[in-house]
Amino acid sequence: MDLNKLLKAMLVALPIMAISACSSTSESETDAMGSTNGSGSELNGGIQTGGVGGMLSAEEQQRQQLDDLRKQQIIYFDFDRSEVQTEFAAILEAHGTYLVEHPSVRVLIEGHADERGTPEYNIALGERRAKAVAKYLQGMGVQPSQMSVVSYGEEKPLDFSRTDEGFGKNRRAVLVY
Question: pTM for the whole thing?
Answer without folding.
Answer: 0.68
